[in-house]
Amino acid sequence: MERLRIKPRSNWQAQVESTGFRFYRPEHEICWDESVCYVFKPHEIEALETATNEVQRMCNAVIDHVVHYRRYDEFQIPKSAWELIEASWQRQDLQIFGRLDFSYDGIQPPKLLEYNADTPFTMPEASIVQTQWREQVWPGKSDFSKIHQTLLKTWRAIETPIHLLTFEHPVKIESNINIAYYVETIRESGGIATTVPFSKLTWDGKYFRDQDNMAIQTLVKLYAWEHLIYDLLLLQKNEPKTQIIEPIWKMILSNKALLVLLWELFPDHPNLLPAYFHCEPLYNNYAKKPLFGRMGENITLREANGKVTSSSGHFAQGTPVYQQLHPLPNMDGNYPTIGSWVIGGVAAGIGIREDITPITNEDSRQVPYFID
Q1: Is 290:298 a contact under the CB 8 Å cutoff?
Q2: Which of 31, 34, 132, 297 has CA 20 to 30 A from 367's CA?
């Protein structure tokens, strides 16, 4: 695994926009940076793919365990959701995508940092933007990006028209960029895709309905389940008839308590880090994360030498978990996180985000890579 400084394409902005990806933040750093790239050996990509499928297998075992022993309180999941989660898991309600974040240096086994299982971003960058860059800049090389084709195949398993939830608030522009990509892939797969603004979504006790009062058969959201439950009063006595993606059993996987149960059920697994609900076993060498944290907010990294790095955010009141600190590799003063995409339950490709701080956040840059 190597980091290279390279010259960006002279017209890279226009090229990126030609894919349909038009998300830029002029007030922050650019979110796609092709002045650098990473180079992987085939065995390193194989290690990431194997780790992804192995972690997904263990996550499924955690869901079985939580459902069987009803350990929802440790996840702070409200009791009114328990039966819906259990019914959804027993039906094996369809999952489409999730992103496992790993720390990986090409030498040690990939170590799971967290699972963005419910509202993952950065798919367009890891899919169509990455593929375009690799084909134009390194046409003789390959990458690990089966994301687009795997996504098309997964959408085809849905036989109903699909509604996709959009947001009107400017802060949610990244959500809408991802939704636009899903609309494109649904239509490319032969499906019917319609967007519905969040403010126009209604609930009739069985189905969600769109702005035209049409019953929604399948709803794709990038809105966290723990918020959806309360904002839309979903939890009624009657089981909802709208199929929601991601399914409600993803509440278990999108919660940082997952890290604790993974370590409890699979101690010493090479792709996992020790994690607990209290910090004492980690001897002041840990990453402190809120249960419902997202976007790298409210993270505290405490090193054994006493150095502390932290981030602010909106999750300060959340109950924390403590995970053994496993620093991201330092690559020329930058810290890369490997985002490994799970689509339809299997590994489908990776993306790389890097930052000059060891806490990856929503402003971290996505950078390309190739396999040599």
Answers
A1: yes
A2: 297
